[in-house]
């Protein structure tokens, strides 16, 4: 399975670090040990559904624990019926990389 999550915390950060709450969310993804890529408008992660669903919640809640007063998360999920043919970041974007 592959997911993409974009967190939209309010405020996005603080005076010292404008994107502090977003960075806290990305730190949760980094700590997961799963393969991921941070993009300009979201972070893509691939792995087993049993790992990804709880991770999405943890990423969302990390912004609140870091001091955001509210957060909206935009989540995209792609999964196939067969575990043998799950999409990967590379299979979806590899041919477009220079």
Number of strands: 4
Assign an overall shape.
Answer: globular
Strand content: 25-35%
Q: Give the class-level CATH name.
A: Alpha Beta
Largest sheet: 4 strands, antiparallel
- The total of helices stands at 3
Helix content: 25-40%
In the CATH hierarchy, the architecture is: 2-Layer Sandwich
Structurally, the number of domains stands at 1
Mean pLDDT across all amino acids: 95
Write up what this structure looks like.
A hairpin with a 2-residue loop joins strand 2 and strand 3. The protein is built from three helices and four strands, in the order E-H-E-E-H-E-H. 23% of the residues are buried. Strands 2-3-1-4 form a four-stranded antiparallel sheet, with helices on one face. The model has no long low-confidence stretch (mean pLDDT 95). The chain has a single domain, classed as Alpha-Beta Plaits. By secondary structure, the chain is an alpha+beta fold. Helices cover 36% and strands 29% of the residues. The two termini are 25 Å apart.
